[in-house]
TrEMBL record, chains A, B:
CDD domains, per database record: HTH_LacI
Pfam families reported for this sequence: LacI, Peripla_BP_4
Alphabetized GO MF terms: DNA-binding transcription factor activity; transcription cis-regulatory region binding
InterPro entries to which the protein is assigned, alphabetical: HTH_LacI, Lambda_DNA-bd_dom_sf, Peripla_BP_I, SBP_2_dom
The protein, known as: Catabolite control protein A
Length: 325, 325
DNA sequence: CTGTTAGCGCCTTCAC
DNA sequence: GTGAAGGCGCTAACAG
């Protein structure tokens, strides 16, 4: 059978309490006995059982991470940020995909509850009352990651999406674009996209047209956009993601027009895709890794009762000018 | 305080054993008392504590997943496959990134041991004795995912990389390529790449040249390749990943040559990148999602003592012909 | 079909 | 500075 704290205690001629103390550094132990215990641990190849620990201490050092889909580049980058910081603070993450399905999300929050996670990092497109209720019921600290709660009831890490939207609009306007197409997922699909659109509209008023392309996937968007850009109606495009920006580029090329000569394009995100294509995409860069890292850090602060100055962190976005504009 | 199985028992006027039975369906319970228990559970909003469960039953329904880096498209896709199947069998995953660093990997295996995971899904570039030893010490079922153990000591899911390499070579040869460049990460970086190269070499002999580009990242590879393709020395390229394939395309274009007119390119992987660029990449497609899904399924079989016919699964790869060749 | 009784491996007072 | 003892919430025999 596996070796327990009790075995170590006997081997070192101390009580299990003492072993526990040296393992956790939870109290002062005489240097000599500490050494004896450490030797015993090594000799026996002892590993503390985290499950038993979790049961006794009521803290599992595990964070539940709920995202729409890890296989999306944007999300994967965030998850990496989360895991890095979690790891730094000696936490581990249970990762689940929700496909942004509310029913599934609520169910997952319940699962995290059962798993006794110390906290939840949550990412989704639309946050509604069902989520809030589930969070409250589970009584677990939650941080929203790249996800907005309009009423700011829950700690979160975001960029200022309205500002980002208007920045994008501003940029194209300064480039003298007159007819700007906003390429985005269907309205109501993502609160964040909706906020950006608000920002754009506020700036551009009627100088822009909204083009909705389903769920925002390249494959789905391309044929739609190819149709849209058949004629030279637009001289500027704001795309809600690199993927949609790229689909726009290709749709425009396919109709015999040039980017940026005929149409200037700016896209959101700045995933690696943006610099791996020709023309390279001008972007409103989002700090994806930092979304993850900062939200995880905020969560650790909450868990460790460290002081936090803002529970709704706004990270900076910035424009990176490249070939597509 | 949170409600326990004991509270439910009292509320339903039964023993906690009975509650446990209806929760787990572990024995037949009279329909009426079952109903009473279920009502009590609902009334109290009871959720079984998975940690306590894990301690008592010695099974946590948690799988440790160790990958080099989730933010890599290839990996993220696999992780999605893993999580989907895990979820289907009511398991959850603890995800960690190793950056393919042996020291860190061994340490992570230890962590998984402490966490009492029921099994480990493992992905890395090079598997050596240290890993094997760590696995044996932890005594946890392991499945290698898109990772080869040359001696097949550990269950695994892969494609036949040597065959895939020779298929790629074959393909370009049939297209009458005479001078083929093999663009790959530095040798010894990845066993899988090395095996593919073996396959290529066996087929092509001296008709090919090996070009090593560090860690296989686009940004790093591009300048190197731009240099390599300055002159019209090659008429074919086999790239070890979509990313390197794309870097080759751009390097060739930058030197004023055309793909596929002057140089035909075939790449490995078939991540979404392959169809999101122009020209679209001809690929040796790897079943990434299935790597994850199948390896997770194999692991569940091992955990549930279901019969398994092969512990070293070989998935099919296939050539998808697109614009780059 | 249901209840009783031990633990699972560890943390955490409380004494000494 | 160290030991003893009582849980944490649940599963798993073993009785009845």
């Amino acid at each position: 059978m596996s070796v327990t704290i009790y075995d170590v205690a006997r081997e070192a001629n101390v009580s299990m309490a003492t072993v526990s103390r040296v393992i956790n550094g939870t109290a002062v132990v005489k240097e000599e006995t500490k050494k004896r215990v450490q030797d015993a641990i090594e000799r026996l190849g002892y590993r503390p059982n985290a499950v038993a620990r979790g049961l006794a201490s009521k803290r599992t050092r595990t964070i539940g991470v709920i995202v729409p889909d890890v296989s999306a580049a944007f999300v994967a980058e965030i998850v990496r940020g989360i895991e890095d910081i979690a790891n730094m603070y000696n936490y581990h993450i249970i990762l689940t995909n929700s496909d942004a399905d509310t029913h599934r999300e609520v169910s997952l929050i319940g699962t995290m509850w059962e798993k006794q996670v110390d906290g939840i990092l949550y990412m989704t497109n639309i946050l509604n009352q069902e989520h809030i209720t589930a969070f409250e019921q589970a009584e677990i600290p939650v941080v929203l990651c790249a996800t907005e709660d309009p009423e700011k009831r829950i700690p979160s890490v975001n960029i200022d999406n309205r500002k980002a939207g208007s920045d994008a609009a501003n940029y194209l306007e300064k480039k003298s674009c007159q007819n700007i197409a906003i390429v985005s997922p269907d309205i109501g699909t993502s609160l964040i996209a909706d906020h950006r659109i608000e920002g754009v509209r506020k700036k551009l008023g009627n100088k822009c047209t909204f083009i909705h392309v389903g769920k925002g996937k390249y494959e789905q968007a391309l044929p739609i956009l190819r149709n849209i850009f058949q004629n030279k109606n637009y001289d500027g495009v704001i795309a809600m993601s690199d993927e949609l920006g790229l689909a726009s580029v290709h749709a425009i090329h396919d109709n015999g027009f040039q980017v940026p000569h005929d149409v200037r394009i700016i896209a959101f995100d700045n995933t690696r895709l943006a610099t791996m294509v020709r023309p390279e995409l001008t972007v409103i860069a989002q700090p994806m890794y930092d979304f993850g890292a900062v939200s995880m850090r905020l969560l650790t602060k909450m868990l460790l009762d460290e002081p936090v100055d803002t529970y709704n962190v706004i990270l900076q976005h910035n424009i990176i000018e490249r070939q597509s504009s």
